[in-house]
């Protein structure tokens, strides 16, 4: 059994210094714990190098600015903190979690005078499964929760509070034997999985929901570029759930899932095929350069 995340070997970069992993603490009255005033990133390490680190750091600062938080370091300093934490912990293939959050200087909805804390944690995470095993595809349920209207949330930020309904959806899916859950948007169109973007294939054409109320993932954009290099047509549009009956292949993209085939979403079945396999291989080749 893997050790809990509050008691591991190694070091976390915490407000400018390396601290023993188990000794990193924050107060129970931290604003972030009560009001979700936290932004973060999820990044992959391949062969000791963080994939697309600059893009992730740029999004982190965009999210912080949207959440009225000023990270007390420059983007270059954050990049250095991420890279040095990977090196300090001797990570070859792993995961990086930079996070900024409001401290305990104020308690209540207002938080103008709270300190913005910043930390970077990294841990080992082998980067991918055997390609043949992954081609069997994972199964998704259909969530009862929907992505909210962009008029109600900062939908283009990677902020902690936006993942509440994702956790609820994934718990419900796993309880019923599924690997993940697909969420619709506030209008009833296909949106995303709980932590990944979704793509469908029909007649050698790739269809994917327009990211108008959910995060436009960095892996999503990367895979779109890879597909275009293969001459494949990409259609970004509103997709009704009943249209899933017309698609032959489906896959998810994200930092954690990379490119993962899907064999079922609710009542709809898919068969992972050549296009999905090609994009899986293209992505793995790209990140391991």
Radius of gyration over all CA atoms, rounded = 19 Å
Q: Could you give the order of the helices and strands? A: EEHEEEHHEEHEHEEEEHEEEEH
What is the name of the CATH architecture of the largest domain? Alpha-Beta Barrel
* DSSP E strands, number: 16
CATH homologous superfamily placement of the largest domain: D-amino Acid Aminotransferase, subunit A, domain 2
Q: Count of helices?
A: 7
Could you report the average pLDDT, rounded to the nearest whole number?
Answer: 95
| Low-pLDDT regions | none
Instruction: Assign the structural class, choosing from mainly alpha, mainly beta, alpha/beta, alpha+beta, or little secondary structure.
Output: alpha+beta
Beta-strand percentage?
A: 25-35%
The helix content, as a percent range, equals 25-40%
- Looking at the structure, the CATH topology of the largest domain is D-amino Acid Aminotransferase, Chain A, domain 2
What's the layout of helices and strands?
Layout: E1 11-14, E2 17-20, H1 31-35, E3 38-40, E4 43-46, E5 49-50, H2 53-66, H3 75-88, E6 94-102, E7 116-124, H4 131-134, E8 138-147, H5 164-175, E9 180-185, E10 190-193, E11 197-202, E12 205-209, H6 218-229, E13 233-237, E14 249-254, E15 258-265, E16 268-269, H7 274-287
Parallel strand pairs: 8-9, 8-15, 12-13
Antiparallel strand pairs: 1-2, 1-7, 3-6, 4-5, 4-6, 6-7, 9-10, 11-12, 11-14, 14-15, 15-16
Helix pairs in contact: 2-3
């Amino acid at each position: 059994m893997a050790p809990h995340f509050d008691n591991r070997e190694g070091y976390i970069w915490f407000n400018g210094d390396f601290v023993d992993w188990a000794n990193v603490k924050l107060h129970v009255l931290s604003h972030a714990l009560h009001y979700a005033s936290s932004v973060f990133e999820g990044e992959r390490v391949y062969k000791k190098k963080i994939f697309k680190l600059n893009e992730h750091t740029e999004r982190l600062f965009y999210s912080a600015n949207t959440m009225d938080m000023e990270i007390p370091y420059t983007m270059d300093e954050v990049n250095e903190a991420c890279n040095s934490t990977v090196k300090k912990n001797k990570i070859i293939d792993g995961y990086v979690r930079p996070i900024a959050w409001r401290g305990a200087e104020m308690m209540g909805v207002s938080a103008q005078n709270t300190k913005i804390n910043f930390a970077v944690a990294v841990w080992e995470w082998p980067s991918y499964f055997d390609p043949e095993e992954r081609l069997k595809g994972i199964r998704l349920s259909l969530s009862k929760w929907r992505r909210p209207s962009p008029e109600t949330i900062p939908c283009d930020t990677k902020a902690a509070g936006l993942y509440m309904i994702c956790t609820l959806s994934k718990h419900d899916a796993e309880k019923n034997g599924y690997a993940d859950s697909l969420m619709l948007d506030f209008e009833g169109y296909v949106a995303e999985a709980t932590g990944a973007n979704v793509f469908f294939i029909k007649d050698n054409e790739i269809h994917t929901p327009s990211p108008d109320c959910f995060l436009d993932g960095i892996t999503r954009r990367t895979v779109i570029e890879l597909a275009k290099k293969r001459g494949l047509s990409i259609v970004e549009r509103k997709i009704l759930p009943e249209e899933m009956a017309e698609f032959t292949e489906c896959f998810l993209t994200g930092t954690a899932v990379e490119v993962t085939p899907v064999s079922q979403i609710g009542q709809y079945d898919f068969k992972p095929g050549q296009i999905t396999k090609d994009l899986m291989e293209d992505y793995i080749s790209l990140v391991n350069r």
